[in-house]
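Worked problem 6 (solution included).
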Amino acid sequence: MTDTPNLGLPYIDGSQAQKHVTHNEALRILDAAIQIGVLDLTLTTPPLSPAEGERYVVASGATGDWAGKDDAIATWQDGAWAFLTPKAGWCIWSAADESLFVFDGAAWQGAGGAASLDSVAQLGVNAAASAPNLLTVKSNDALFTAIETVDGGTGDVRIQVSKEGSANTASVFFSNGFSGRAEFGLVGADTFKLKVSADGSGWIEALDIDQDTGNVTLPRGLSLTGVISSAQITADQDDYAPAGLAAASVLQISADAPRGISGLAGGGEGRCLTVINVGSQPVTLLNESASSSASNRFSLNDSLVMSAKQAVILRYDGTAARWQAIAGGMAGAGTSVGGFVSPPQGRLTLASGVPVMTTTQSAKTTLYYTPYKGNRIPVYNGTEMVPTAFPELSVATTDTAKSPAAIGVGKVNDWFVWSDDGTLRLSHGPDWTDDTTRSAGTALTMVDGVLLNNASITNGPAASRGTYVGTTRSNGSSQLEFIPGASASGGGAAVVGLWNMYNRRPAQLFVQDSTAGWAHTSAAWRAANNSVGNRIALVCGLVEDGVRASYASLAFSTSSAVQVGISIALDATNAIAANATSFTTYFGAGNNNQISCVANYSGYPGLGFHYLQAIEYGGTNALFTSASGPTRSGLSATIWY
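Solution. The predicted structure is:
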């Protein structure tokens, strides 16, 4: 053996002459091979003017003096290139790369410093890497930071997770003790998905984003937190800004009476806010109201009414600087999306602040139009329906300032709400021709689905400027009444002397004759107990609602043969109504007989003022009992007013 096995240093033979030559050759090899630091690993041609002792790794495909010396360490010594063939495990430092490299027997591989670790089979940081986790990092934190532009970078940092095909998965997986809990990414498709799991085995998709359209699908429920409940609203609100609004996603409101909100603070591009009326009174979001700052207003095309327990979802449009409704609520009194005109929200009543009467209101001389479903009514201005807020309106039956005349005796009149130079009025039209006939001067016309006065009304609205809200019929003293019936001698007649065009409610009426009993000895129909008190009277502005009525009585005969019966008449006292049943029976002579009788009515009484009369049929020794012992007879009905 003439050379050392690792560095190939020449041995000095014992009898060798000029031993210094061999010794110097070995020193040159040591100088080139020990603490190797090369200037570059990428050159394929030798530098033109190398300095003594400069070292390079010959890149693949070298030419000139380096030809055929790929991966060798070339050292410039004594005016010529000397080459060392590396062996596996040799390490060098590359000044150009500022990195350490190691020879693996076939090529130089990065081993640290600024160079990339290309084609490393696996890498573990503070942990051992193994398939399939070829990169394993055990750390409390991991940092990725961008190369700044001053250092030649872009200033950006992006992490790319790429998969082979659409059916494969490229995702980020989150675990608890290596048991999966969440995953997001391209999971088995090119749609972006977010999945969650309670146990690592059963998975639920919570979010899908389509890669073509960007549309978001929520396969599961959505929970909104950030709920605030504002103090009860006790007055109309401008630039409404309850505490906590800026961070809220749900705003719960309530009001002590029908109230309006003209604007809402806290708007920002794209912000969505759910507003819920948790109270019992309606709250209206006013459309484009100048009462609030421009940037706080609602752009709804029409005011939106939030009745009790209703909600609306708002989105703020930063370009328009307006809140807009996505869903919820109901169109206010006026034109809404698609040209729909919502109806008036009040009711005619004889009791202030009581839109639905259930107790007797007799001999009244004031009529009210009071908020019920809300406080908005459409008023036609000749071009469009204008949603208009109204307080409770009232008018005396004797008024002649804003009505054509005082209410007369037994007269039917229509009632209208109209704008008198910006002031809302409640006025009536001329008397009907009779109880069941409108005259030409009292005709109605329809605009956008709302009935208006067809002709101008003296002291009242011009033609087609009054919104029709209902009809009344006065009593013999020019007064208005709502009497649900009573028990009285001869019958306590029921009278519903007003009718609402909108928001009608049922009235339960009952009339009883407190007389213990009476005789009817004629074989003919007549009013029960020969009294007009055993009747129910009502008025209808339009023929839209049916009426159901029932009359019950106890009939008997003492001795003679006789036929007896009961029924219900319409606008009469001696004839069975067309839509009524009758109950008659025949008692033989010499018997003391009695029988319970029931008659029913179901029909449409017709336009205007009408009454349903309890009637009876008798003969010799025929008797009727209404309030004797356990017997209680009476006339009952359900009408809509």
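Discussion: The CA atoms of residues 35 and 92 lie 7 Å apart.
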